[in-house]
Amino acid sequence: MAATRLTWRLLFVFGILLTAWSAPAAAQTGSPRVLTATVDGAITPVIADYLDDSIERAEQEGYQALVVRLDTPGGLDVSMRDIVKRFLAADVPIVVYVSPDGARAASAGALITFAAHIAAMAPGTSIGASTPVDLEGGEISDKIINDAAAFAESIAEVRGRNVEFAVDTVREGRSATVTEAVGIGAVDLASSSLTELLESINERRVVVGPAARSVTLDTAGAEVVDQDMGFFRRIQQILADPNIAFLFLSIGTLGLIYELASPGIGAGGTLGTVMILLALFGVSVLPVNVVGLLLLVLAAALFVAELFAPGVGVAAAGGTLALVLSGVFLFRDTPGLDDSGAVIGPVAIVVGGGAVLAGRVALRSRHLPSSSSQERFVGQILTVGRAWVARRSSKAPGGTFAARPARSSPDWRCR
After folding, report:
1. Which of 43, 122, 358, 388 could pair with 99 in a Cys bridge, judged by C-beta atoms 3.0 to 4.6 Å apart?
2. Residues 103 and 220 reside in one and the same domain
3. Residue-wise pLDDT tens digits, 185-229
4. Domain end among 202, 233, 264
């Protein structure tokens, strides 16, 4: 009996060891998989986090490569540099595919494409125009240009791309079509579809990671797995837009103004607070100008002044002008993250008009009698209800008192 139990235990341990030994082999002999991530819009810290998570997943789960489908007008320099550094240190092959047809890898997107192990472009796409924009709206200094050009040159050298073109995208704002980019060696190939791309790069050798490990791609017929950005990250990317941030700041301020003008159940204050908090997320990830913030505070102060001294709307007009100037100066110029005059003007006018109406509401409420004041009932005839009188009951033990209604209910005049 003891021998039987020992035999079963040995078989159990042997089974566990066999499973552990065969699992890696099964993973290696299974069909190859490729992870894809889609970047469609400006380069922001949200996109940098998304790509970092995608690379980490591709590394940990043994994907053959990470394919980044890219279509961007540019974005923040800090986020672009974070992405480039992550690409250069990735332990999995990174393929940037500028797609779909008609897409672009402009400004920061061009440098991100240069940093990939393999760079491909779809028909009708373009790449380049990486000249930095001065965040203060002035002339670009030679120091900034030289730094950006050196960064582009170093990326091109590491990946074996056309160094002259990479530098010209910064210094001259040069761009190239897919045909030209492939011809001069700025990118590796042109592909009309993801399937064609995976077939074309099959069996290519790339060097990945800090250890310079050589990897042969096995992507022909690979299973394509999409790395979804996720609902909350999509919301964050929407909020990381100057126009959305300005809209939420303005409407949120208007909600707080109406709450001050006519305090009640707090709907205006609650909505306004939520919108301002959401806008602050955008402000936290976007390059902000201090002058724009001060103008925004001035606009809010003038709108509040309209509540306490409503008249012909002089304070509201000044607040509207300050709000327009705030929209112009609040967010510094960044390719792909430009604020729009079509948003700033109408929003400022709506908020200014709303402040004037809120001032009228506040003025009217100050002339209404208070619902809790005794003066509200002066001069009015009020019925206070049936009067009750008490009489001594001789029948009740101990001579207790009993109550009965009076024959009539008197009216009372308040004075």
Report:
1. 122
2. yes
3. 999 999 999 999 999 999 999 999 888 899 999 999 899 999 999
4. 233
